[in-house]
Amino acid sequence: MAMILAFDVYGTLIDTHGVVAELEQRLAEQDRSELAPEFSRRWRDKQLEYSFRRGLMGAYVDFSRCTREALEFTDRALQTRFSETDKEHLMGIYARLPAFPEASAALDRLAEAGVSCVAFSNGSREAVEGLLEQAAIRDRFDDVVSVDEIKRFKPDPAVYAHLRYRLESEPGDTWLISSNAFDVIGARHAGLHAAWVRRSPDAPFDPWGIDPDLTVADLDALAERLA
Q1: Carries keyword Ion transport (predicted)?
Q2: What is the dihedral of CA 167, 163, 184, 193, to 10 degrees?
């Protein structure tokens, strides 16, 4: 069977820090615009933490709820005092985050090489479809696979088993592509191949003794190696 690449969405294809500009505008009203990058980072970190905790508790909810609750926590932690209107607006921005600049060309190169690509996310299918459509890259993917189909979150092994079930693929033919080390480790633990998109050159990989098959700086480098 031909190789299949399953792309994580948030942080790998889509820039979760694409909300910083909007945060800067909202925080400028409080003369705290310099806080925007920190707010974005904490929001993203808490979003993932909430998905991990809910996974351990067996208390699954739609990923958008993790995002909304993480926004509420970050607002309280940094004492930014956003109004409910502000929060709803920021959630709307999160649903329209941009793709990374190199994503479209890299996906085109993979398609030209005959590589099959799917999107694979903690987000609901509806949310992921919307993100990819507005970023103008939905047509590069053969399918969207969401954890919502089995009500588990990455890096639960059942999630990666579900991916292979949906793709009807063997572990050796299936590659996870992710900028999230926990996702890469989860996939490798489940027997899949995995490539780590190390978007920050200073980012260390978790020292678990489970390493990615491939480490690249961005999706252009991935296409160069796998196309």
Answers
A1: no
A2: -30
Give the pLDDT confidence score for residue 1 in this predicted structure: 56
State pLDDT tens for residues 67-95. Answer: 999 999 999 999 999 999 999 999 999 99
Looking at 8, 15, 86, 148, which residue is catalytic? Answer: 8
CA distances in angstroms from 207 to 65, 141, 172, 201, listed in the order given: 31, 32, 23, 16
Radius of gyration, CA atoms only, the chain = 17
Q: What are phi and psi of 6, to 5 degrees?
A: -105, 110
If DSSP codes are grouped into helix, strand and coil, which group holds residue 193?
A: strand
Residue 62, token pair as written in the block:
């739609």
Residue 156 falls in the annotated catalytic set: no
Using pLDDT thresholds of 50, 70 and 90, give the confidence band for residue 120: very high
Residues sharing a CB contact under 8 Å with residue 184, sequence separation 6 or more, in sequence order:
176, 178, 194, 195, 196, 205, 212
CA quadruple 44, 50, 55, 58: dihedral positive or negative? negative
Distances 122 to 19, 80, 144, 146 between C-alpha atoms, Å: 19, 28, 11, 6
Homologous superfamily assigned to 4-15+98-224: HAD superfamily/HAD-like (3.40.50.1000)
Q: What's the confidence (pLDDT) of residue 172?
A: 87
